[in-house]
Specification:
The protein contains 1 helix and 7 strands. It is mostly beta strands and 85 residues long.
Length: 85
């Protein structure tokens, strides 16, 4: 299980961190254009199952990821199916 605390979630576009308690994301912060930490929201892709486009699941938008397991968010982040805004 993931320990409670802050975890960095960075890529080329975003420098951010999420706070995890009991394995779930409670809040997020990111570095803004002034270099200061500001509150942020983690999101994951929302798929509509049963809808297909060229043989793939259809992306329908983004759902707020506050409260989901950090391990699930991290796996989606690696695949490009999560973001912090």
């Amino acid at each position: 299980m993931t320990q409670d605390g802050w975890y960095d979630v960075d890529d080329d576009d975003v420098k951010a961190s999420v706070y995890v308690e009991d394995g779930r994301i409670l809040r997020a912060v990111k570095v803004d254009h002034n270099g200061e930490l500001v509150p942020a929201d983690p999101y994951v892709v929302h798929y509509v199952y049963g809808k297909y486009f060229d043989g793939h699941r259809s992306r329908e938008g983004w759902d707020n990821a506050t409260g989901i397991k950090y391990s699930s968010f991290r796996a989606r982040w690696r695949k490009g199916n999560a973001k912090i805004t």
